[in-house]
Amino acid sequence: MQFKYAHDMTSSVENSPKFAILGAGALGSILGAHLVRAGHSVVMLVRERRAQQIREGGLRVKGLVDFQVEVPVLTDASQLRKADVLVVAMKTTGTAAALQPLRNARIGAAFSVQNGVFKDDELVDAFGRDRVLGSLANTSGELLANGDALFTRNVDLQVGELNGGLSPRAKEITSTIDAAGVRSTAVPDIVSLEWSKFAVWASYMPLSVATRSATWKYLLDPDIAIIVARVVREIGAMARAQSIALSDDSMLPVKSMCEETEDQAVRRVLQAGETFRTKAPEHRMSSLQDFNAGRPLELEDTIGRAVRKAAELGVAIPVAESLYRLVRGIEKIAEKKE
Ligand SMILES: NC(=O)C1=CN([C@@H]2O[C@H](COP(=O)(O)OP(=O)(O)OC[C@H]3O[C@@H](n4cnc5c(N)ncnc54)[C@H](OP(=O)(O)O)[C@@H]3O)[C@@H](O)[C@H]2O)C=CC1
Ligand SMILES: CC(C)(CO)C(=O)C(=O)O
C-alpha cells in the first residue's frame, strides 16, 4: 500500500512532534505505531532503507496486535527542532554518533529502551542529566525482513528518574504509552531495575549466541543454568560495589539470587527456563535475532563496557568476561565466513 503523501518533513509543526523515536526497528516501530494509533504526533528518525519501507507501507505491527499506521519519517535528524520526548530505540552500536545531530534540538525528556546500563551516560552527555530518564523494556519484538514488526511480549516498559523517586513527567510519559497499548509504568528505582535486568542480559545475551537456541532451552540445561547464576551474581557484585541496590522485580529474582547460595540461585534459573518453555517457547533473545541476521551484536557497549568497568571497580567477573570473550570470538569467526 502506497500512502498518499511523502513523509519527509519540512514544516515546523512536523519537525516538532510530541514523540521522536530514534530507530524504527522492532521496539521503535511497536512504540511508534501504538502512539500514532492513539492520536499522538510521532516522528521516526530513521536511515534511508527503513525510511523507504515506512514511506511505502507505513508502520505495520503483527503478533499480539495487527494494525498499520502512517507516520512521518526524518532521515536527517538535524532537521528535528524539538520534541517533547525522545525515545532511543536503535541498537547500541553507533548511538553516540546518532545523537550528535540531535544535540541542538529542544528535547523535553529523553530515555533509551536499549539494553545495558551505559546507554544513559550517552544521553546525559548529549542532553544533560536533567533531561534524561532511565528506562528498560520488558517488551519483546522482532523486525521481519518485510518491514513488519512482530510484537511478541507486552510485559512492561519502565521509565523513571535517574535520581530515583516518582516524577510527574515519568508518570505522564508512561501513562501515555500504556494507554496507547504498550504496557508501561513509572518506577521509583529505575537504576536498580536497569542493573538487575543487565545482570540477566549479561548471561542470556552471550548464551543465546553461543547456543543459538530458544531461551528456555539453555535456561533449563543444568550446566548452563550454573553459568547464568554465576554471571548474575558477578554483575550483582558490581552493582553492590557502586551502592546500587538490586531488585527481584526483574526477569530473574536478581536480588535474592545474589543473597542466597549458588544452588538456590541455579534453581531460580531452572524455574525461569520452565516459565519460558510453557509461556514463550519460541522466545529468542534480540541478540540471537541479530546474530542470525548477520547484524552486529550489542556486545561492546553492554558487556564489553561492564568488563572494563569491573576492572576499574576492582570487582572480579571471570564468568561474564569469559562469555564476553567467547561471543567476541564467535562474532569474528562468523564475520570471516562471509
Ligand atoms: N527486540 C526486543 O525484543 C528487545 C530489544 N531491546 C533493546 O532495544 C534496542 C532496540 O532493539 P530492537 O528494537 O530489537 O532493534 P532492531 O534491530 O529491530 O532495530 C534497530 C533499528 O535501529 C536502526 N538504526 C540503527 N542505527 C541507526 C541510526 N543511526 N539512525 C536511525 N536508525 C538506526 C536500524 O535501522 P537500519 O534498518 O537502517 O539498520 C534498525 O531499524 C536494543 O538495544 C535492544 O537490545 C530491549 C528489550 C527487548
Ligand atoms: C527482554 C528481552 C529478553 C526481550 O526479548 C530482551 O531484552 C531482549 O531480547 O533483548
Automatic annotation (TrEMBL):
The keyword Oxidoreductase applies. It catalyses: (R)-pantoate + NADP(+) = 2-dehydropantoate + NADPH + H(+). Its EC number is 1.1.1.169. Residues 20-163 form the Ketopantoate reductase N-terminal domain. GO terms for cellular component: cytoplasm. One of its GO terms (biological process) is pantothenate biosynthetic process. It comes from the Bacteria. The keyword NADP applies. GO terms for molecular function: 2-dehydropantoate 2-reductase activity. Residues 190-331 form the Ketopantoate reductase C-terminal domain. Belongs to the ketopantoate reductase family. Catalyzes the NADPH-dependent reduction of ketopantoate into pantoic acid. This is 2-dehydropantoate 2-reductase. It comes from Povalibacter uvarum.
